Structure formats: structure tokens, C-alpha cells
Amino acid sequence: MKLAVIGTGYVGLVSGVCFAELGNDVICVDKLEDKIAKLQAGEVPIYEPGLKELIASNAAAGRLRFTTDLPSAVRAADIVILAVGTPSLPSGEANLSFIKQAAKEIGESLDGYKIIVTKSTVPVGTNEKVGAIVSEHTIHSFDIASVPEFLREGSAIADTLNPDRIVIGTDSGIARERLSALHRPLTDNILLTDIRSAEMIKYASNAFLATKISFINEIANICEKVGADVTRVAEGMGHDRRIGSSFLKAGIGYGGSCFPKDTEALIQIAGHVDYEFKLLKSVVEVNRDQRFGVIRKLEATLGELAGKTVAVWGLAFKPETDDVRDAPAFEIIQTLVDSGVRVRAYDPVAQDNFSRQLDHPRVDYCASAEEAAAGADALCLLTEWKEFREFPLARLETLLRRPVLIDGRNQFTEEELAGTSFVYYSVGRPNLSKGVREQSPALQF
Ligand SMILES: NC(=O)C1=CN([C@@H]2O[C@H](COP(=O)(O)OP(=O)(O)OC[C@H]3O[C@@H](n4cnc5c(N)ncnc54)[C@H](O)[C@@H]3O)[C@@H](O)[C@H]2O)C=CC1
Ligand SMILES: O=C(O)[C@H]1O[C@H](OP(=O)(O)OP(=O)(O)OC[C@H]2O[C@@H](n3ccc(=O)[nH]c3=O)[C@H](O)[C@@H]2O)[C@H](O)[C@@H](O)[C@@H]1O
């Protein structure tokens, strides 16, 4: 099939290249001339494992092209896929200006029947709005469909090529048939729905995953007070197939370009129909506070923070990505420098993106994990990159001025820390001092 994909962010690029890999003829479109020029030259604007190679092979095979010429790409396609951004407005609502503008441009470009698919995450009712905008600008017939995207950054290609399910929301028989045929090579698990339910499935899925994370983070916070270990608790819960073991990793809370914005947007969607989504409001509130656990633990060990030097390992919101959108590291580092701390930060991949957005005289960006740790009063691990997990603890002990390790991602085990001199605070697990568990407080009944 011939596809035009509008927007070359994560979703546009990854789904475009994966459809090309399946043998379709794909043109990816973006407004940004620089971005398209780079893609045409074989450069990939984002760090995503495997993406560069897959783009190169499909471009060389002539199945994948890049352009800024939206009208020509739309005319050459049978199916037009909208993958533009839907960032948050200050109110928390989704900003639909990119969607609306792209819908207008698509409408103006139509020269015959097309299927117009929205992959961007959009509030219920948006696809109908897209249909109305396209209609205003064309005399040609078209159908609309909502096909939400569920890929995760860092494993985007594997997720796209092996999806748990594909959701196709449309009221058109032709669109249902052609979009099922397009996705069937990926999975047989295709769920056909109406448009509004498909739009809701995406928000409900992200909100539920965010809820699991905030739930386990609250359990972790209680574990710290009662002397239990949240990793064992999550393991014990996860064996129950009704609960499942995924998304039960306690830590510094969720970040990224989607959970924070989509939870806020769903609260607004509910509010517009006079429904207060109390549970999701709490999920967001718990998440906002969770990152400050790192600061509280630093204060508990170092006392007054002003004048101290703190190393930070990890700036991306999760490993295997250079995306720093809504990364908890921003607020943690900002709070530290506001308290008079000098920060020595390092991330193997996301450092350039991060430092462009947080430039402060008390933040030094370092060339290596080792350089960041050298001479610091404490080290905070904020992103679970493999290189941090594999860093020899004996070496780290000698680099730090004080062997204080605040592990925001529960990366090290008690066995690994046994025999070291670390004061070790993690999330929802007993604190260790010189490798030995600190006494849990007596419980009152
Ligand atoms: N990033 C992710 O992992 C996932 C994102 N989503 C959703 O997918 C959508 C896209 O997200 P990202 O890929 O992160 O977006 P992004 O914001 O990184 O990129 C969007 C791209 O669209 C381009 N664009 C905007 N208007 C355009 C127009 N009229 N014509 C051509 N290009 C245009 C922009 O220049 C930009 O390059 C969002 O709704 C997001 O919520 C869904 C699942 C995963
Ligand atoms: O709509 C989206 O954009 C995407 O949002 C998430 O994907 P992503 O944000 O790339 O990454 P996740 O792996 O879900 O992690 C999100 C955040 O939650 C945190 N997390 C995740 C899992 C966990 O157990 N604990 C936890 O704290 C991560 O550290 C990270 O900050 C969803 O997992 C995707 O299905 C969805 O398509």
C-alpha cells in the first residue's frame, strides 16, 4: 500500500519505517526543513536503538522517502497517517493546533478518495473534528479512522513490529478492511471499534499504566516506614496473573512525553463532561511528589545541602532514549541548585538535550560517569542505564568524597553492597549502612 505519514517524531518515524519494512511504499512528511534534510542524508534526529539501520535499509530499497511537500505526499498515498504532536496546553488539555493545521493541509491536498488515520494521541471527538476540517477543504470523499499508537521509547521498533494489539476505530467498512490488511502482518489481534472508543482506549491505557506506577510508589513509601522491601512485594503481587508483574517498578515516578501529558489531558476530558476523575488526580499528585524522595534522602544523610556537591547519574526519563521531555531529573536538579548545591551531571545519551534546557552556573555536565562522581558528597542515580548498573562499586567508593548512594531506581542489591562502606538509600527498600540493614523502626499497634 502507499502511505503518507505526517510528522516525523517518534511515532511518525518508527511507524513509517516499520510499515516500509513490511513492504509498503512510505513517504514521511515534516514541516521542519532541517529535519527532513538530515533524514534524507541518512541522519536520524532521535536516539532509538535499531532505528538508523532500519531507515537506511528501507530508504536504500526505495520503500521509504522523506519530504516537506505534504500535498504531493498526500496525493501519492492511499492512506494518510497523522502522527503530529499533541503537547499539553498550560491548562493540561491537549493542544490540537498541529492536528487541526495538518487536517486542513490534507483537505486542501486531496485529489481523490483517501483513508485518513490519526495515530497521535487525541481527546475523544478529535477524529470527528479532523473529518469536519478535511470536509471544509475538499470536494473529494474520504474516511477517517483512529488507530492509536502504543509503542514505548527505547523499544519502539520491537513494540511496533510485535504489538500486543492493534486498535482500529472507524465507522467505514472500506477503512476497516484496508487498515486490517495493513496491520495483519504485525498481529492477528486486531480490535475493531467505533472511533470514540478507540480514542478513549489510548488514554485509558496510559492512565492505567501511570496508576500502576503511582500505586507501587505509594506502596514503596509505606514499605520504607514499615521496614518491608517493595521489590519483593511487587514480585509477590506480580505472580498473580490478574495483577501482572509489569509496571510495578518503584522509583522516582514516571516522566516522558506521554504519561504526564496524557494523564492531565484525561482529567480535562473528564472535566469537560462534568466528571471529576479523582483517582487519576491522585495518581498525578503522587507522581509529582515522588521525585522529591531523592532530595529528602539526601537531606537525611547530608543534613544541610547548601555548599555540598552532588553527582547525578542519568538525565533521560528512562534508559535507551535521548528524550528528556518531562524528565524528573529537571525538577530534582533545579531543587538541588536552588538549595545551594553544586551538581555534577552525566547521561550517556541524553546530556546534550538536557543541558540545552537546563543551563545553570552550579550545574557541571561531565564527560563520564566517573568524572561526575569524582569528589562528590553523594551520588543520585536517576536513570537506570546499564553502564551505571555495571559500574564497579569498589571503584565508586573511592571516587566519592563520602560514600553516599541514593539509588532512585533500585539498581543495586544488598549482596552487591555487602562489605562496602556505602550509606545506601533506595526506594521502598531497607536503608543500608556499610552494607548492613539499618534497624527498622518499631511498629506500634
Ligand atoms: N513519543 C512516543 O513514544 C509516543 C507518542 N504518541 C503520540 O503520538 C503523537 C506524536 O508524538 P511524537 O512522535 O513524540 O511527536 P513529536 O512532537 O516528537 O513530533 C511531531 C512532529 O510533527 C511535525 N509536524 C507538526 N505539524 C506538522 C504538519 N502540519 N505537517 C508536517 N509535520 C508536522 C513536527 O514538526 C514534529 O517533527 C503525540 O500525540 C503523542 O502523544 C503515542 C505513542 C508513543
Ligand atoms: O503514549 C506513549 O507515548 C507511550 O507512553 C509509554 O511509553 P514511554 O513513555 O515511552 O515509556 P515507559 O516505558 O512506559 O515509561 C514511562 C515512565 O514510567 C516510568 N516507569 C515505568 C515502569 C515502571 O514499572 N516504573 C516506572 O517508574 C519510566 O521510568 C518512565 O519514566 C507507554 O508505555 C506506551 O505504551 C505509550 O505508547
TrEMBL record:
It is an enzyme of class 1 (oxidoreductase). NAD(+) binds at residues 30, 35, 86, 121, 153, 261, 325. GO terms for biological process: polysaccharide biosynthetic process; UDP-glucuronate biosynthetic process. SMART domains: UDPG_MGDP_dh_C (SM00984). It catalyses: UDP-alpha-D-glucose + 2 NAD(+) + H2O = UDP-alpha-D-glucuronate + 2 NADH + 3 H(+). GO terms for molecular function: NAD binding; UDP-glucose 6-dehydrogenase activity. Substrate binds at residues 150-153, 202, 247-251, 255, 318. It comes from the Bacteria. The keyword Ligase does not apply. The keyword Disulfide bond does not apply. SUPFAM superfamilies: 6-phosphogluconate dehydrogenase C-terminal domain-like, NAD(P)-binding Rossmann-fold domains, UDP-glucose/GDP-mannose dehydrogenase C-terminal domain. This is UDP-glucose 6-dehydrogenase. InterPro entries: 6-PGluconate_DH-like_C_sf (IPR008927), NAD(P)-bd_dom_sf (IPR036291), UDP-Glc/GDP-Man (IPR017476), UDP-Glc/GDP-Man_DH_C (IPR014027), UDP-Glc/GDP-Man_DH_C_sf (IPR036220), UDP-Glc/GDP-Man_DH_dimer (IPR014026), UDP-Glc/GDP-Man_DH_N (IPR001732), UDPglc_DH_bac (IPR028357). It comes from Paenibacillus pasadenensis. The active site is at 258 (nucleophile). Pathway: Nucleotide-sugar biosynthesis; UDP-alpha-D-glucuronate biosynthesis; UDP-alpha-D-glucuronate from UDP-alpha-D-glucose: step 1/1. Its EC number is 1.1.1.22. Residues 311-414 form the UDP-glucose/GDP-mannose dehydrogenase C-terminal domain. Belongs to the UDP-glucose/GDP-mannose dehydrogenase family. Keywords: NAD, Oxidoreductase.
